[in-house]
Amino acid sequence: MDTADAYRHCEKIVRGQARNFSYGLRLLPPPKRRALSAVYAFARRVDDIADGDAPDGQRLTDLAAARAALGTARPDPEDPVLVALHDTAIRYPLPLSAFEELIDGCAADVRGETYEHFDELLSYCRCVAGSIGRLSLGVFGTAGAAGTRDAGDGRSDGRDVARVAHLADALGVALQITNILRDVREDRLAGRTYLPAEDLRRFGCTLNIDSSGRFTDPPDRLAALMRFEADRARDWFDDGMRLLTALDVRSAACTAAMAGIYRCLLGRIAADPAEALASRLSLPPWQKAMVAARALAGAAR
232-253: per-residue pLDDT in tens? Predict the structure, then answer.
């Protein structure tokens, strides 16, 4: 397959299936936009395998096949996502091992793993979302990491590189916690529970659902639980948003737009937990466009 066609295929996937991210990607120059589209298209493939209707064993086999495809020297020429991702990995220093973490997290979803403590959920969030942040850094590049030198020897300061990676990881955690809060009901109907068991006990909640699909826990307890988790996500956003100072203007605008959309969504969840628990919240397109416009204007200052 022609590489240009492969990238166009990936961009179509992002526009159709990762709409929140597409608003940020539009702010990037074309080469970086194409590269991140390839990253997200492969991530979407992995996520779709985990969320599919196939039996658990088949989904785990398919995830293993996706993992094996990452290690091939030459991609399947008939697979546009792999063709584009292979080209991206040549052009940018992608930490492809981060995809392995993503696959590990999605395998945990298939197995129906639950989390007793927040630290366990944190590890999951770093697998499925922090990994994408680290892959994105490979495309963005980092002004901070490139600008700090050790003793004049021309090498980047490893401490600065680690700091930037930590910030990307923190932002990924914030986005994933927001996703979890947005999808509490949807996930519960699918038999999944992500919120830590220790938090459920703390607020006296079970997340049990009755025959009509409604939570049986007292609404005030559910609201307190959701606001507690939303405050936790805000703390991770506060940490992760410091990443913007390490990025060039267009990359910072892209990141700010994507994070801004999720922060607005988090604000709606915290303001009205009952609405979030009754249906899957999303922002209207005009509001997403406004967030992206503000992100571009803010990054340019």
Answer: 999 999 999 999 999 999 999 9
